């Protein structure tokens, strides 16, 4: 973990926005957003594939594969994409939370419990550092997630149009 360069920072180490960012960046699910595009898409496809374990039987119960293969595949694919959507929402909310904490001029923290919250105003050098991290590290991740949402919505739209053809 990176320690804040400000020695008079009253915020506990684990609640400092920079340390929250470093922790998020190295956690097993959230670090997938920092991979190159090919690796990132591969991870999303793995999640989609694993979601078929639930979506496949549900689709088969509604549209038996031996009778209506097109509807079975489309229904299963749409159902499996729910797992991807839920994962993307979790990733987006986590990165957005850290972005907001880094970008904010003040940091809310708890000293020992929920009942004694305090607010610390960041010095200008800390604020500048944190906003640079937001601009160069976190905004591209959020854009990637937004692009993934848009791509998934486009695929679901295409799937809907194909559904109506059959």
Description:
The structure is a single chain. By secondary structure, the chain is mainly alpha-helical. The protein has one domain (28-165). The chain has helices spanning 17-26, 37-62, 69-103, 124-165; strands at residues 106-110, 117-121. The protein has a two-stranded antiparallel ribbon with strand order 1-2. A hairpin with a 6-residue loop joins strand 1 and strand 2 (117-121). The N and C termini lie far apart (55 Å).
- Quick one: overall form? elongated
Q: Main sheet, how many strands, which sense, barrel?
A: 2 strands, antiparallel
| Approximate helicity band | 55-70%
Adjacency order of strands in the biggest sheet: 1-2
Number of domains: 1
> Could you spell the SSE succession in H and E letters?
HHHEEH
Structural class by SSE content: mainly alpha
Terminal-residue CA separation: 55 Å
Give a count of the beta strands, DSSP E runs of length 2 or more. Answer: 2
The overall pLDDT, averaged over residues, is: 93
Rg for CA atoms: 21 Å
Poorly predicted regions are none
- Counting DSSP H or I runs of 4 or more residues, the number of helices is 4
Oligomer: single chain
Approximate strand percentage = 5-15%
Keywords: Membrane, Transmembrane, Transmembrane helix
Pfam family, one: CGLD27-like
InterPro entries: CGLD27-like
Transmembrane segments: 45-63, 69-93, 147-165
């Amino acid at each position: 973990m990176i320690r804040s360069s400000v020695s008079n920072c009253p915020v506990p180490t684990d609640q400092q926005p920079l340390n929250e960012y470093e922790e998020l960046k190295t956690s097993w699910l959230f670090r997938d957003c920092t991979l190159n595009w090919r690796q990132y898409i591969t991870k999303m496809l793995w999640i989609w594939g694993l979601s078929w374990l639930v979506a496949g039987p549900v689709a088969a119960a509604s549209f038996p594969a031996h009778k209506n293969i097109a509807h079975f595949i489309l229904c299963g694919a749409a159902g499996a994409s729910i797992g991807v959507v839920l994962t993307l929402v979790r990733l987006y909310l986590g990165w957005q939370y850290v972005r907001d904490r880094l970008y904010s001029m003040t940091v809310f923290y708890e000293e020992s419990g929920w009942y004694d919250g305090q607010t610390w105003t960041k010095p200008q050098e800390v604020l500048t550092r944190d906003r640079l991290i937001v601009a160069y590290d976190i905004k591209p991740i959020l854009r990637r997630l937004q692009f993934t949402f848009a791509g998934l919505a486009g695929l679901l739209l295409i799937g809907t149009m194909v559904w109506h053809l059959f």
